[in-house]
Design goal:
- This protein has 12 helices and 9 strands.
- Helix 2 packs parallel to helix 11 (about 235-260) and helix 5 (about 100-110) crosses helix 6.
- The protein has helices spanning about 5-15, 30-40, 60-75, 80-90, 100-110, 110-120, 135-145, 160-170, 190-200, 215-225, 235-260, 270, and strands at about 20-25, 45-50, 95-100, 125, 150, 150-155, 175, 205-210, 230.
- Strand 4, helix 7 and strand 5 (about 150) form a beta-alpha-beta unit.
- It is an alpha/beta fold and about 270 residues long.
- The protein has a single domain (about 5-260), classed as Alpha-Beta Barrel (TIM Barrel), CATH 3.20.20.
Length: about 270
């Protein structure tokens, strides 16, 4: 079992829901990304997802697109993102996942990309534009380096496809809540909930819902169907308008809400 699965399965066994938080590497700069990542861990985040800035992030909504654009304009690169991971690792053992796109990997060199990030200390990788049928492109490299290649399912996934993806999933299964892009607010998670139930029939792997979760109430609604929730755009909005203190407040509030619902609230920043 990978440390991603171990972390989320451990929370599940203790009656808690996991929180995966997202940051864009280099936004607003690398120092702020590092400080925010460590602050979110202090407030109770369980997994940190780092997005590698890309010029055409097709799965991302306007908030993350803007963050990526600004980071690139400020000089963000894949190499600098690797250095960021190393800096986080010097201070933390929290599970780290990178989110990127196929072109970024190919441009850097597949083996060099996977090996460099693995050596820096990541535990998983999400590639939204790499479908199951093409996952062999990275599968062997990831296995060699001990990195989980995280798969995605969506409300439009067929039963057959859900089965095939769930059986191949590693780390956790990323369950996309809607057919749009990241960001926005969505109150109804029933559709992705039924997809998750289908996946649970064939695979015992943590399920995490992402896209459209931006408030403690939204996180709670999604968590009722899954083992963890993923919050991204709302984190970046807080960082842009309220700084790291704003991010701390949001992460703390979400953790408190999730733990109160489980009946195990103590101090989320210390008990997770």
């Amino acid at each position: 079992m990978s440390n991603l699965s171990e972390k989320l399965q451990g929370l599940k066994a203790s009656g808690r829901k996991g929180l995966v938080v997202y940051l864009t590497a280099g936004y607003p700069d690398y120092k702020a990304t590092l400080e925010t990542a460590l602050a979110m861990e202090e407030e109770g985040a369980d997994v940190i997802e780092i997005g590698i800035p890309f010029s055409d992030p097709i799965a991302d909504g306007p908030v993350i697109q803007k963050a990526a654009t600004l980071a690139l304009k400020a000089g963000a690169t894949t190499t600098k993102s690797i250095e960021l991971i190393k800096e986080i690792r010097k201070a933390s053992t929290i599970p780290l996942v990178v989110m990127t796109y196929v072109n970024s990997i190919l441009g850097y060199g597949m083996e060099k990309f996977i090996t460099s990030f693995a050596q820096a200390g990541i535990n998983g990788i999400i590639v939204p534009d790499l479908p199951l049928e093409e996952s062999g492109l990275l599968e062997d490299l990831c296995k060699e380096q001990g990195i989980d290649l995280i798969q995605l399912i969506a409300p439009t996934s067929t039963k057959d496809r859900i089965d095939r993806i769930a059986k191949k999933a590693e780390g956790f299964l990323y369950c996309v809540s809607n057919t749009g892009v990241t960001g926005g607010q969505h109150a109804n998670y029933e559709q992705i909930g039924s997809v998750i139930e289908s996946a649970r029939q064939v695979a015992d792997i943590p399920m995490a819902i992402g896209f459209g979760i931006g408030t403690p109430e939204g996180a709670l609604a999604a968590a009722r169907y899954a083992d963890a929730v993923i919050v991204g755009s709302a984190i970046l909005e807080k960082l842009a308008h309220e700084g790291i203190d704003g991010v701390r407040g949001l992460v703390r509030a979400i953790c408190v809400q999730l733990d109160k619902e489980s009946g195990r609230y103590e101090d989320s920043s210390k008990s997770r």
